Amino acid sequence: MIDLMADAPTIRTLAKLAGVSSATVSLALRNHPRIRPQVRERIQQIAKEAGYRPNAIVSHLIAQVRASRRASYQSTLGAVFTTKDPGHLEVPTFKEWITACEMRAFQLGYSFDKFVLLQSGISPERLIKILDARGIKGLFKLGPFVRGAIPPEFDIIWNRSATIVLGARPVRPALSAVMNDQFSTVGQAVEEVIRLGYERVGLCVSAQIEDIVEHRFLGGFLAARNRLQCAHRLPAYEFDRDDKKSFRRWLKEQPARCHPHPPSHDPRLARRNENHGAR
Question: What does residue 108 show for φ and ψ, rounded to 5 degrees?
Fold first, then answer.
């Protein structure tokens, strides 16, 4: 339990308690997507225990200042999904990316439109007419992509517009991409759990996700595993969400004490780990 201070706690007070910057606390209390969910929840819990209450007058003034900093309208940007699976639109990672893009675009004076091509049946030619009518020249492209490629009939869209791919780099066409460094992410995770005292570290990863990210999660894990003693080197497990027996058998055969896994597109994997004693 946190000791309450005599004076009402402030953003600066919460920052000291949480060991983060005041800016991080401010963003966390506003549920900003730039702050990781675990960090947001921890800071919000600290604020609750400390009895923090935002000052309505100060909040109103800050909101006015932020509003005055927003740039005047520049143009409209577009986000294009080529997935056939409507479930991909509900993937938390994708939703956070788009929310962050929308927020930043709004701050810089851009509006934001979304298009789902294969699901809605919009042809490339029809989309180009829509983009022209709305004056959209810049696009964000989101997968996942079938076998790492975007169908060639969509090439006329990317040739017409300035396009950035988010999250997974397609093999073709060659487009600029902004993505997480999955190799380093897993390597850092393994190093961190070893620093915390764990020795036998396993990795659970979806074969489908591995294919999308060109096996960078597995590559990072194998590189980090080579720094462990031979007795502590566990094989990675490519899980199938519908194959619970295989997962249980892997846990029994490989008694790892920690199972880091990439942010799952299926939260059932995390629950399955907990149900079978993995920590």
Answer: -95, 5
134 and 199 belong to one structural domain: no
Examine residue 6 and state whether it is found in any structural domain, yes or no. no
One domain for residues 113 and 50: no
By residue range, what is the domain housing residue 18? 11-69
pLDDT digits (tens, 9 = 90+) for 14-68: 888 888 888 888 888 888 877 888 888 999 999 888 888 876 666 666 666 565 5
The answer on 79 and 174 residing in a single domain is yes
Instruction: Enter the tokens of residue 126.
Output: 């029809």
Both 62 and 108 in one domain: the answer is no
Residues 19 and 32: their CA atoms lie apart, in Å, by 18
